[in-house]
Design a protein that fits this description.
Oligomer: single chain
Helix content: 55-70%
Number of helices: 17
Strand order of the largest sheet: 1-2
Distance between the termini: 50 Å
Largest sheet: 2 strands, antiparallel
Length: about 475
């Protein structure tokens, strides 16, 4: 006969391999405090609805508080024989206060209880991630202000396109992260409904008050449909998706850091304490942390795919496949949070080689577009101006010169519209300063952008 809490229907005890294979408790350790919060709210409601006597509720609450203390003191035993954290807590409460502890499970199932615990945890995790994103955004703003005025190459196809300010390049990542916050906020809104009371999948026969438990735990309200509630993992998939997109952004930043710290380019220099060396080449200084974040992004993408694949063919409501929901989500949350935390000080200590960046900004005839704009302002249709400047660039390539060094006489070979004022329009400073359109790289626009970004930092998000 099975001695499991659910074992009354079974003649044989669970095989030890099945027990180990089926258990999720070791993965769920982190949700233990949230499971206690959920059970506490549930017991409060059961007493308020006279489903438990106040004396019974008080006794169970004392047991829950004792378990909470054991968890905080590191004395709580996580045993695979309990299968999951919900059964482990109930078992321990019952050991501490007696059979009345079993009444805490009245009017609920492990299905809605597990959903609740993970929602509470995920809500907390999103709040922590948003805090970490905000910290990184503050560093981005500080770095943009520190190097305000530094010329930097703007690329398309990783070929030099136009000169920009380093600060403008840096702030691009602020706005990527701002969109990430929006995605986490959206996920938070949809997960912030209380599943407790859906029970196994059809609700309960007891006169529970779902509004009360939802309010006590800070949810917007109870979920609408018990079958959907138990069969739902959208909140975890959305969280994994937001994490994957954010990791993609961090990976792009790290890719550029790897490129721009190479000796061949050397726009940036990383601090020694965020780099590693080679076991054979004593000259090496490797940007391993940036590479590591870039590599970890792939694993987070895989976690999202794992969740989608797990859910795509499941009938309603609960299937044990769904117990695989926590590991990928926990891994994505951990990986993103740690990446955000380590990227912040790495970026703070990174220095910019302004002289080398300026050289890069001037390569590749990056002021050619400004020459075309100059001709357009002289009345030449832009498409024709584009063609003229293409010929001029081709001339420069063949004669090993650049647009700044060309004489007026050379320019006149291509267009009489070019006058002796041309050189003042094609310096790097002039090219950057001329781009005054909203969101452009002109210094005054970048400074305005930073002020708008600072205003975003003051906004509150979710429960943060």
């Amino acid at each position: 006969m099975s001695d499991a809490m659910w074992g009354g229907r079974f003649d044989l005890p669970m095989d030890h391999l099945v027990q180990e294979f089926n258990a999720t408790i070791l993965i769920e350790k982190r949700v233990t405090p949230f499971s206690i919060i959920g059970s506490t709210a549930h017991v409060h409601m059961l007493a308020a609805q006279n489903i438990l006597t106040q004396s019974e509720a008080d006794t169970i609450l004392q047991g829950l508080q004792a378990v909470r203390q054991e968890v905080e003191d590191g004395k709580f035993v996580f045993d695979v024989a309990d299968e999951d954290i919900q059964m482990a807590i109930e078992r321990r409460v019952t050991e501490l206060v007696g059979a009345v502890g079993g009444k805490m499970h009245t009017a609920r199932s492990r299905n809605d209880q597990a959903q609740l615990d993970v929602r509470l945890y995920t809500r907390h995790a999103i709040e922590e991630i948003i805090k970490a994103i905000r910290d990184l955004q503050r560093t981005i703003i500080a770095k943009a202000e520190q190097y305000m005025g530094v010329m930097f190459p703007g690329y398309t196809h990783f070929q030099t396109g136009q000169p920009i300010l380093f600060s403008h390049w840096m702030m691009a990542y602020f706005w990527m992260l701002e969109r990430d916050i929006g995605r986490f906020e959206d996920a938070y809104k949809r997960l912030n409904v209380c599943p407790l009371g859906a029970a196994a999948m059809a609700g309960t026969t007891f006169p529970i008050d779902r509004e009360m438990t939802a309010k006590e735990m800070g949810f917007e309200g109870p979920s609408e449909n018990s079958v959907d509630t138990i069969g739902d993992r959208d909140h975890l998939i959305e969280t994994d998706s937001a994490a994957a997109i954010c990791m993609m952004h961090l990976s792009r930043l790290c890719e550029e850091i790897v490129l721009f710290t190479s000796q061949d380019i050397h726009f940036f220099e990383l601090s020694d304490d965020f780099c590693t060396g080679s076991s054979i080449m004593p000259n090496k200084k490797n940007p391993d942390i940036a590479e590591k974040i870039r590599g970890k992004a792939g694993r987070v993408f895989g976690n999202l795919q794992a969740m989608l694949a797990m859910m795509k063919g499941l009938p309603l409501a609960f299937n044990t496949d769904m117990s695989e929901d926590k590991e990928p989500t926990f891994d994505s949350v951990d990986t993103l949070h740690m990446s955000l935390r380590i990227l912040k000080p790495m970026l703070e200590k990174m220095t910019v080689n302004a002289e080398q960046a300026r050289v890069g900004a001037g390569r590749g005839y990056s002021n050619a577009t400004d020459l075309a704009d100059y001709l357009a302002r002289k009345g030449i249709p832009f498409r024709q101006a584009h063609h003229i400047v293409g010929h001029i660039v081709n001339y420069c390539i063949k004669h090993n010169t650049d647009l700044e060094r060309m004489t007026l006489q050379e320019y006149k070979q291509f267009s009489d519209a070019i006058e002796d004022d041309i050189h003042q329009f094609i310096t790097l400073e002039a090219c950057v300063a001329a781009r005054r359109s909203f969101g452009g790289t002109a210094p005054e626009r970048v400074k305005e952008q930073i002020e708008r970004a600072r205003a975003r930092l003051a906004l509150t998000h979710c429960g943060v």
